[in-house]
Every structure is written in structure tokens, then in C-alpha cells.
Amino acid sequence: MSVTELNVSLTGHTALITGSTTGMGQDIARAFARSGARVALHGLGDPEGIAELVNELGELSGHESFHFAHDLSDGRQGGALVQAANARLGDIDILINNAGVQFVSGIEDFPTEQWDRLIAVNLGAAFHAIRAVWPGMKRTGWGRIVNTASTLALRGEFGKTAYVSAKHGILGLTRTVALEGAELGITCNAVCPGWVYTPLAAAQVEAKAAALGLPLEKTMKEHFLSEMPTKRFVEPAEIASAMLFLCTESARSITGVALPVDGGITA
């Protein structure tokens, strides 16, 4: 049975969601649009598909949406992205740092260029984006920042040196920003998903299945869902609902937390 997204109103707010043209990011963008927020979409992908998504978000929110294609493999582009979004939509007061990439290899053979890319996209871009939205949030006395972390922000995993390092860094960034924003009306939190069946996860499942010579379903069950007490993938709507709640007035005293939405993995 599928879940229904949280029904909240964020009318009057403007949300920038990085990594929102594919996978879980699309669902997050749709959820914020349904809440009435103006949405700035970010990411790469098929131009026609992105144009359709921009139109859909506009219909859902009742406000014009815009797409930005900044390449976050240069982490500094996170700041440029915010500046571009501010120019088109006004000050961003909700920032969802969701863009993420993955590469799997043992440390001895881990390519240095992949380390640089993962740290830039998964951590550096979030820092630069937060730094860029800060003046506007400080000026208005209201801001919500939610970073997509992972259960791997809380533990390690073989072959994921850069990803695990970046996600641990995201928690440090989250907690420090939360402290600095505590008296300014700015909250900063991280959501730590378990396995969500996104294109990123699907690629890992397919690679594992090919390496082991197993069917996809068997690979999912024995090598991915085995560690999840619920024995199912987390639905994107569950992640979106957690993020929506963290952006409401009801969550104004919740800041600096790492919220697992993981089917019980961290339990």
C-alpha cells in the first residue's frame, strides 16, 4: 500500500530543490509544489521531460516554476545556482540539498577524480548553496534548510569511501549551521533515508546482481532489504513528507537533527 504525502501549506514560500529532475528529487519537488510553494527545479536530464515536469510543478503550485542546470561537480556552482534562482523567483527561503552521486570501489583503486566529484556534489555544493541563501533568510528571520543525508552518514560501508565521507560531512554541516541559525529563525536538519528505489539505488542493485549472477529480485531481498526490518524499500513520498514537516512552523524547534527514514536500519 502506498503512502500519501503530508498535507501542509507552504504558500508564500519559495523552495529550491537540488537534484530534482530525477528519482526521489522529482517526488520531493512535486510534494513542495502541492503544498503551494514556488519551486525552483534543478538537475540534468532529458530537456523534454524536464520541460514537462516544470509545467506540472506550475500547475500543482499555481505559480510559475523554473529549471536550472548548474553542474554541481564544481561545488561552487551551488552558490551560483542560488543566485540564479533568487533572480528568477525572489529570495529562496526553503533549500533542499538533495543532489547526490555515487561511485563504488575499494580504497586502493578508488579514482581520485571520483573522490573529488562525489565530495563536490554531495557536500561542497550544499555548503555553497547554504552560504548563498543565508543573507536572505537572515534578513527575513525565517528559513528552512533540509539536507539529504543517508544511513551511511551514521555508519560506514565497504567500497563507498567518498559517499560515506561526504554524508558524514553533511551531518557536521547540518549541526553547525543549525547552531548558527538558532536565534535567526533558520532551522537546518538532515533526513537520512534507508534504501529508496531510485535510479541511483537501481544501478547499485543491477551491478550487484550482475557481479553475483543473481536475479534482481533475489539480489534485492538478500543483499539490500535484508538489513531493513520492514523488508521493503522506503517510498519517496515518505521522504518528501518528512522534509515537508521539517519546513513547517510546527517544526520550528527541530533543528540540527539527523532524522532516519530507514525502515528500522539504525535501530
CATH topology annotation of the largest domain? Rossmann fold
Largest sheet: 7 strands, parallel
What is the CATH H-level superfamily of the largest domain? NAD(P)-binding Rossmann-like Domain
Number of helices: 8
* Contiguous uncertain segments of 5+ residues: none
**What is the CA–CA distance across the termini?**
23 Å
Structural account:
The chain is an alpha/beta fold and 267 residues long. Helices cover 46% and strands 13% of the residues. Helix 1 runs parallel beside helix 2. The longest helix has 29 residues.
Using brief descriptors, characterize the structure shown.
Rossmann fold, alpha/beta, seven-stranded parallel beta sheet
Provide a quick synopsis of the model.
This protein folds into 2 domains: 14-194 and 234-261, Rossmann fold (3-Layer(aba) Sandwich), CATH 3.40.50; 196-233, no CATH class. It is built from 8 helices and 7 strands, in the order E-H-E-H-E-H-E-H-E-H-E-H-H-H-E. It has helices at 23-34, 47-61, 77-89, 112-140, 161-181, 199-212, 216-223, 236-246, and strands spanning 14-17, 38-42, 66-68, 94-97, 143-148, 186-193, 258-261.
